[in-house]
Amino acid sequence: MADSENRIDSGISRRRLLGTAGATGLALGAVGGAAGYATASSNSPDAAASLTSLGADRVMFHGKHQPGITSPMQSRGHLIAFDLAPGAGRKEAAALMRRWSATARRLMAGETLGDSDTDVARDAGPSSLTLTFGFGHSFFSRTGLEKQRPTALDPLPDFFSDHLDKARSNGDLWVQIGANDALVAFHALRAVQRDAGEAARVRWQMNGFNRSPGATSHPMTARNLMGQIDGTNNPKPADADFDKRIFVPASGAPAWMADGSYAVVRRIRMLLDDWDKLSGKAQDDVIGRKKSDGAPLTGGAETTEPDLEKTGADGKLVIPINAHARITRPDQNGGAAMVRRPFSYHDGIGHDGVPDAGLLFICWQADPLRGFVPVQRKLDRGDALSDFIRHESSGLFAVPGGAGEGEYVGQALLEAY
After folding, report:
1. What is the SS3 assignment for 161-199?
2. Residues in domain Dyp-type peroxidase C-terminal (predicted)?
3. Rounded distance between C-alpha atoms, residue 233 and residue 220, angstroms
4. How far is CA 203 from CA 83, 157, 164, 257, 377, in A?
5. How far apart are CA 368 and CA 354, in angstroms?
6. Which of 412, 414, 411, 405 is nearest to 105 (CA)?
7. DSSP per residue over 211-270, as a string?
8. How far apart are CA 134 and CA 187, in angstroms?
9. Residue 278 carries which DSSP code?
10. Residue 267 to residues 280, 357, 381: CA-CA distances in angstroms?
11. How far apart are CA 122 and CA 26, in angstroms?
């Protein structure tokens, strides 16, 4: 596999799972390209039973790019932002990034953390765990590295649909955690928090989820909490211009961001009660696609290009002028492209009986001013979906390239200037 991707390894890690499938029955299907489940129960004399394919799947920490960008979406996720503690600066930030990188490497390999391990994920394999690290706008002034702050990290403009909670936005440091097991993901979250020690304090933290691998009869694009297939037009690594659109080139500026990317993070609340009052046809018109299979209203399958000029017998456009699918099309936005890699969230029911649920929107691009910003500006001017969503928090983070063997994430920034 090309070194621009983080290889997934289905080999067995140091943690072993004594397959519980023997006691509960087997679910059929393949996950991450490997199929089959261990059948020995924990009471079996075969104490060395192999991990299931789900538990054994491993994403490599070291690589050209950080993991968690092009890695397949996981079923569990945590997003957490930190602010450096008062008095902490570049030295403390470098030590923290060194700790976090060492922890990420060990946990992503399915290893324990030794005496400091909480044993939360003791019996599990790496389960496609990824940890991804980024720096916010304020990080550079806190560490005396203002001259190395990328212009692409300038604050996002205000948008009409924003109702942002500043306490749950931005931050000096950002960590994205994903895994296909909830305990593995939580274990990594606790490790990251513990590693922060006295150097950084949690600013905000959010939890998300997606459909579990193997839950459908065949691989499918994920659905969001509105029931819509979400992510059909994502750029793919096989696209000729993928790296150019998503990753900072080696010749880019600043030099320490080579092979990195920029993450826009938005907590988007879905007004589900209002959405559910719409008829099925009305929902389809808002999106511009069929809820049933994600196909454009002009016909075909999910991946069929919409015919934006097609009209019906009444002379009206089949895909409404303000349909979400029309407005977000790259050819309607000067070619703007970004990889959307979100998690859904549900934080309970409010006192008014309305669910606090929606999307932890995360998108990746080489330059947010050419990716997220032009698309969001256009959505702001007339997207039919805007009546059913509310942007409640926001962050923009510079995510440097991957760490090589013996290196830590951000080393080129924190030690070279």
Report:
1. CECCCHHHCCCCEEEEEEECCHHHHHHHHHHHHHHHCCC
2. 221-402
3. 13
4. 6, 22, 15, 24, 27
5. 33
6. 405
7. PPTTSSSS----B-TTS-B--TT---TTSTTHHHHHS--TT-SSGGGTT-EEEEEEEEEE
8. 20
9. S
10. 26, 10, 20
11. 22
What is the rounded distance in angstroms from the CA atom of residue 71 to the CA atom of residue 401? 14
**Facing residues of 392 across strands?**
none
CB 279 within 8 A of CB 401: no
Cis peptide before 157 (omega within 30 of 0): no
| Residue 226 Cα distances to 21, 275, 285, 355, 384, angstroms | 32, 7, 14, 12, 14
Distance, in Å, from the CA atom of 210 to the CA atom of 125, rounded to the nearest integer, reads: 19
Burial status of residue 143 (CB atoms within 10 A of its CB: 0-12, 13-18, 19 or more): buried
DSSP string, 93-105: HHHHHHHHHHHHH
Region of 415 on the Ramachandran plot (φ > 0 left; ψ -120 to 50 alpha; else beta) = alpha
Looking at the annotation, which residues are catalytic? 230
The β-bridge partners of 397 are 263
Tokens describing residue 172: 């000096």
Are the beta carbons of 265 and 395 closer than 8 angstroms?
A: yes
Do residues 283 and 229 touch, judged by C-beta distance below 8 A? no
Contact 410, 400 (CB under 8 A): yes
Give CA–CA dist 189/175, Å, rounded. 9
Residues ≥6 apart with Cβ < 8 Å to 168:
204, 206, 267, 392, 393
Closest CA to 105 of 67, 74, 135: 67
Half-sphere exposure of 237 (CA within 13 A, CB side): 11
